[in-house]
Design a protein that fits this description.
The complex is a heterodimer of chains A (336) and B (330). Chain A is α/β, with parallel strands linked by helices and 336 residues long. Chain A contains 12 helices and 12 strands. In chain A, the strands form 2 sheets. Chain A has an 8-stranded mixed sheet, with helices on both faces. A 4-stranded antiparallel sheet of chain A has the order 2-1-4-5, with helices on one face. In chain A, helix 4 crosses helix 5, helix 4 runs parallel beside helix 7 and helix 5 crosses helix 7. The longest helix of chain A is centred in the middle third of the chain and has 18 residues. The two termini of chain A are 30 Å apart. Chain B is α/β, with parallel strands linked by helices and 330 residues long. Chain B has a single domain, classed as 3-Layer(aba) Sandwich (Rossmann fold). In chain B, the strands form 2 sheets. In chain B, strands 6-7-8-3-9-10-12-11 form an 8-stranded mixed sheet, with helices on both faces. Chain B has a 4-stranded antiparallel sheet with strand order 2-1-4-5, with helices on one face. In chain B, helix 4 crosses helix 5 and helix 4 runs parallel beside helix 6. The chains are: A alpha/beta (336), B alpha/beta (330). Chains A and B meet through helix 3, helix 7, helix 8, helix 9 and helix 10 of A and helix 6, helix 7, helix 8, helix 9 and helix 10 of B. Bound molecules: adenosine-5'-triphosphate (2 copies) and magnesium ion (MG) (2 copies). One magnesium ion binds next to helix 1 of chain B.
Amino acid sequence: MVEPAVNVVVETPVLEVRDLRMFIHADRGTRIVRAVNGLSFSLGAGRTMGIIGESGSGKSMASLSILRLLPRGARVEAGEVLFGGENLLKKSDSEMRRIRGRHIAMILQDPMVSLDPLFRVGEQVAEPLRTHQGLSGETLRRRVIELLGAVGIPAPESRFDQYPHQMSGGMLQRIVGAAAISCGPELLIADEPTTALDPTVQAQYLDLLEELQDRTGLSLIVITHDLGVAARLCDDVIVMYAGRAAERGSVRDIFERPAHPYTQALLSTLPGRRAPGEHKRLKTIDGQPPDLAALPPGCPFAPRCPRADDRCRTETPPEIALDPTHMAACWYASDA
Amino acid sequence: MSQHILSVENLTKHYVQKRSFVLRTQPGVVKAVDGIDFALPVGATLGLVGESGCGKSTTAKMLLRLEDPSAGKILFDGREVQAATGSDLRDYRTNVQAVFQDPYSSLNPRMRVDSIIAEPLIANRQVAAVEVRDAVAQVMGVVGLNPDWARRFPHEFSGGQRQRIAIARALVLRPRLMVLDEPVSALDVSIRAQILNLLMDLQDQFGLSYLLISHDLDVIAEMCAEIAVMYLGQIVEIGPARDIVANPRHPYTQALFSARLPAHPDGAANRIRLSGEIPSPLDPPSGCRFRTRCPHVMPICAEVLPPESELPNGQRASCHLLSEQSALSS
Ligand SMILES: Nc1ncnc2c1ncn2[C@@H]1O[C@H](COP(=O)(O)OP(=O)(O)OP(=O)(O)O)[C@@H](O)[C@H]1O
Ligand SMILES: Nc1ncnc2c1ncn2[C@@H]1O[C@H](COP(=O)(O)OP(=O)(O)OP(=O)(O)O)[C@@H](O)[C@H]1O
Ligand SMILES: [Mg+2]
Ligand SMILES: [Mg+2]
């Protein structure tokens, strides 16, 4: 059994992922896309874990694997997903259905995958409350309206009977959020939950999540490209690259003492707040992300890494612990 | 020819909601966009920002002729877009391209990526197959998609990769105006920077003009010469981006900019918290629409729609505080 290199939390974690690996058969099996290649982490009760990193690095696939909501052709190949000590990968489909929605909820990256365009939004938010909590009639309707109000939908009673196409992008995103928190889950996995929200609405939505956490002890995994959201919300952060954690640590470790060259490059591309119209070129990371169907040997970041040497190009670096809460998968992590 | 590639006058979209006893809906009108005016100079970028649900995407849809305005005019090169038919309409559809908020629903799941990107080219121009292939490969490279991925289907891509397919498809016709609705919010910081650099390069080289809708105020500040701030279907402040970022005058704009999250755990938080009822476009407040949440609300705000006050720098905001000040100083 593979132990995670570092135990971020001391108490029993709500969720513990050990050496998760999954792949997707593409093009009738001629290509095997290795989207998650050995991901380990643990999440304590009431804590918030952020997952940031390269687009296409397997963030969504990792979270869909945890919930066993994988697309066709995808398979979890190895690893354990312990939720309250039980391995979700061993559960039957019907057990998983009960766990999803009731104990673990997920906000998918694309709201329209969760919403049916042919049904009224109020009914769609009501669905989990009906199945898991047995609410019905006026009580159910009132509860849904209350939830829509809580996520900042104006005049929620007038929105109950609208269809998804009658709502704005940010409203749809919050409606999916309302459905996800409706049954008071213990764990919420939110994949890019605020991309369609303006700063004021986003701030209120994050307040709501934090308030929910204080009240119910909810544990949270937030996948985001918005480093401001990660900085504001998260206790711990995982930086993903090519299906692995390039770096893991407390939010301070990641933002103040980034040890992996990919994390360093990512943070250095953040545009500073400069006056509009200065029209300088924005910084990018040179090179192409690796093809997950043909991963090179060695460190997946090596082809783009300014520090890479022969060892990096041939031997995959293990997770190297820098201190008890901070680790980086880089041969030179401790030199920084 | 006009110096503005695009201008809109009193642009309005009202959605009529019928009464239904079964569904308990009240009859009403959703005032999604309620009489907005702006003009976009050739080769410039205008940013459209505002609260979720304030009417930005509806404005974009009207510009793309996906929705008919309830009132008002859209002028492209000084000519009215609503009146365009036949070859004028075809020209307009070639010259104006869009990238939408949700790349998922806008990509046909049964088409391969190269066909998705080539489709507008084939539909609008007579081009040889080789040229199509070259154009597709070139534009894929430009947005950072590996041209080897051309034969794949949209579901084989991550969220950010799909967004780049949508951008490639919009670019392939070399339009003159692009309407960009949250084009980079699904992308990591590095790819975001790559796409924004690309958009700026295209603007420098070909004089492309952009209407950019984004919730990311850093992206807006980076890209735009002018910003228009919308609240509940109306423009409450408009003017040079530099001045609005440095010194927003409308209390809503001030609250919006104050809520930006710094990308650091210690970031200063001087957020202006908005309290009070969030109004609905079905039943907007009388007078100033922001008054129910405004920290500076005065009695007059409920009664009189604030007129637009213009500052010497060209910044214009609709707020009674400003009209009072200008009345005092004159
Ligand atoms: N059905 C599929 N068939 C083949 N490859 C796929 C499929 N779905 C995803 N992939 C690939 O798996 C990789 C991981 O995808 P995933 O959606 O997890 O990325 P992500 O980190 O969530 O990216 P983003 O930030 O852009 O959403 C990507 O490189 C993607 O191209
Ligand atoms: N087809 C429709 N029928 C009825 N109302 C609609 C329709 N389309 C949009 N609306 C309403 O119009 C208003 C403006 O929506 P719009 O999509 O333009 O907002 P937005 O500014 O793009 O918001 P976001 O930032 O959340 O994407 C919303 O109240 C929305 O519910
Ligand atoms: Mg994703
Ligand atoms: Mg929108």
